[in-house]
């Protein structure tokens, strides 16, 4: 694993080689039996490579729903924990914390980790004590979302991935190999408040003194006062030391422009084919919306779904538009579909509408309606 990934890195940071090696293994698995995950998308590869080149310990990435955020960062979470050289202290187990928005999200991360470990040739055993270099053990609690996987890293040390909803308890008491704050703008505690400030302070502390350890903060942005947006804004203003902010980049800007041009032309055609004045007026208004014609900025810190994914940009935004056009509950009353599109998938939340679009009820109904919501 280490030798093969070093060749693939070809002089780039070692994490890049680890990720390419995993993609190759999962691609072989998919060809062999139809299982496995698709490879990391070109935009995400570039984003992560920029981060690893920077030498910063922390990444902040604001990406739309369906932007392959969770799958991608779980992949690098697994590989960094497996491959990173670290000093083993007595009998301490190096752990990688994965904190998800809720129980359902946490359980989904378990599915991804299991697929990854199986694809690289590890076999599951029932007990942690039986774990060897060729096996892993899983302790999964679907009811609470608190689960963990135990394995042996590339240098013979015992390691663990700990998955849970975001609480101060989940961010405490482990030796930090790294962490993944997944959809942190959607986190909620028992009082309906976002606990990110307290939880992340503890998580950051777990990484203190751990050479090469990384913390990933990734979410669809909720608004200017939400945790991820605040983190990015402070970094933009003061150049926060140690935090690398993901950018749209040239590739992302090109995909963004192509997608929005496709949708603008789609609305123009619909306006010409409209059978009544009402339909014509609505589709013409959509076609002339400035968000569909403005220039794409490679330095932008809001990453649309259609830029982060790998499919044809027109097809990607077409699917996002289909999902945005589905009304889920009365909580979305007054939400124009184009506003919904740019809030959820364009990573551009708009005021109070964003709160309604990402309420727990909306998210639950969206998942029930479409697995890829």
3D architecture notes:
Strands 1, 2, 3, 4, 5, 6, 7, 8, 9 and 10 form a ten-stranded mixed beta sheet that branches. This protein has 14 helices and ten strands. The chain has helices at 2-9, 14-33, 42-54, 69-83, 103-119, 196-206, 227-238, 249-273, 277-287, 305-308, 313-324, 337-345, 351-357, 360-369, and strands at 58-63, 94-99, 123-125, 135-139, 147-152, 158-164, 175-182, 214-219, 243-245, 302-303. The protein is an alpha/beta fold. The model has no long low-confidence stretch (mean pLDDT 87). The longest helix has 25 residues, at 249-273. The chain is globular. Helices cover 47% and strands 14% of the residues. It has a domain at 55-245: 3-Layer(aba) Sandwich (Rossmann fold).
Task: Give the helices and strands, then pairings.
Blueprint: H1 2-9, H2 14-33, H3 42-54, E1 58-63, H4 69-83, E2 94-99, H5 103-119, E3 123-125, E4 135-139, E5 147-152, E6 158-164, E7 175-182, H6 196-206, E8 214-219, H7 227-238, E9 243-245, H8 249-273, H9 277-287, E10 302-303, H10 305-308, H11 313-324, H12 337-345, H13 351-357, H14 360-369
Parallel strand pairs: 1-8, 1-9, 1-10, 2-6, 2-7, 3-4, 7-8
Antiparallel strand pairs: 4-5, 5-6
Helix pairs in contact: 1-2, 2-4, 4-5, 8-9, 8-11, 11-12
List the main descriptive attributes of the protein structure presented here.
10 strands; globular; single chain; 47% helix
């Amino acid at each position: 694993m280490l030798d093969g990934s070093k060749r693939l890195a070809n002089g780039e940071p070692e994490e890049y080689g680890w990720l390419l090696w995993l993609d190759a293994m999962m691609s072989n698995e998919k060809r062999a039996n139809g299982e496995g995950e698709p490879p990391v998308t070109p935009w995400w590869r570039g984003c992560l490579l920029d981060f690893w080149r920077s030498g910063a310990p922390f990444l902040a990435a604001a990406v739309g729903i369906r932007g392959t955020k969770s799958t991608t960062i779980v992949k690098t979470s697994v590989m960094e924990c497996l491959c990173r050289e670290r000093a083993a202290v007595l009998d301490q187990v190096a752990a990688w914390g994965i904190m998800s928005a809720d129980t359902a999200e946490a359980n989904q991360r378990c599915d991804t980790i299991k697929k990854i470990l199986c694809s690289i040739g590890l076999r599951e055993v029932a007990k942690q004590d039986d774990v060897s270099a060729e096996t892993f053990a899983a302790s999964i609690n679907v009811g609470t979302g608190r689960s963990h996987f135990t394995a042996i890293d590339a240098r013979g040390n015992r390691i663990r991935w700990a998955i849970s909803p975001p609480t101060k308890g989940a961010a405490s008491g482990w030796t930090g190999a790294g962490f993944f704050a997944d959809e942190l703008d959607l986190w909620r505690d028992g009082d309906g408040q976002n606990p990110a400030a307290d939880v992340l302070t503890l998580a950051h502390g777990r990484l203190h003194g751990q050479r090469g350890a990384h913390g990933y903060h990734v979410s669809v942005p909720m608004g200017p006062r939400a945790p991820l947006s605040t983190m990015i804004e402070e970094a933009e203003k003061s150049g926060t030391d140690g935090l690398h902010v993901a950018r749209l980049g040239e590739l992302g800007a090109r995909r963004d422009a192509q997608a929005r041009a496709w949708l603008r032309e789609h609305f123009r055609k619909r306006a010409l084919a409209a059978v009544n004045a009402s339909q014509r007026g609505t589709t013409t208004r959509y076609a002339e919306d400035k968000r569909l014609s403005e220039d794409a900025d490679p330095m932008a810190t809001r990453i649309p779904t259609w830029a982060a994914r790998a499919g044809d940009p027109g097809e990607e935004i077409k699917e996002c538009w289909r999902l945005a056009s589905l009304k889920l509950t009365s909580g979305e009353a007054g939400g124009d579909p184009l506003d919904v599109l740019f809030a959820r998938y364009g990573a551009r939340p708009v005021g109070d509408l964003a709160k309604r679009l990402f309420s727990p009820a909306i998210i639950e109904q969206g998942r029930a309606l479409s697995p890829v919501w």
